[in-house]
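Record minuted for everyone:
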Amino acid sequence: MMALCLKQVFNKDKTFRPRKKFEPGTQRFELYKKAQASLKSGLDLKAVVQLPPGESINDWIAVHVVDFFNRINLIYGTMSEYCTEKSCPIMSGGLKYEYRWQDDSKYKKPTKLSAPQYMCMLMDWIEMLINNEDIFPTRIGVPFPKQFQQVCTKILTRLFRVFVHVYIHHFDSIINMGAEAHVNTCYKHFYYFIREFSLIDHRELEPLVRMPQGWEG
């Protein structure tokens, strides 16, 4: 039963957006393989996120931002049938935290959206950024822009809000699906990574200071 439930979590049909892939033969692809090998080896997650000797920090961050986008996208895709306009009319993390959407095009001021609307806008926005060669260059020798880490901080901050919403509003569904261990591991990996490189303001982390059952620190 557990295997069946976990299979649901990895069901490609549930993916919220197409997965972003790294091109074989590129430095980014090799870094991605190295990161995945470390993750699967059972090493301490705090050690897994550390920058490998001799590697570029921007390449390392880029690989993880894309990977976290894929993983969190998949988690939300699995949960999306429980997250509806009716059940979640506001994108929030409990009664204390509400997240409004703002971008440089349609929503120029912070705007109240339902959780499903917010998630759609968020995934579209991240997809646009990671496919932008001026921000996430894939060609050898093309440097990252000066604001690269600033952009990644914004992406990761907003992805963190997906965890906040899923944990606070849909944790029962995660447990019922048998996906608790997978989601917790993904969150721990994400959390240790952002802490290792100070990529999210600590105030943003407050909604999940007290984790649900299953979080082991």
Remarks:
- The radius of gyration is 17 Å.
- Strands lie at 92-93, 97-98.
- Helices lie at 2-9, 27-40, 45-48, 57-79, 115-130, 148-176, 180-196.
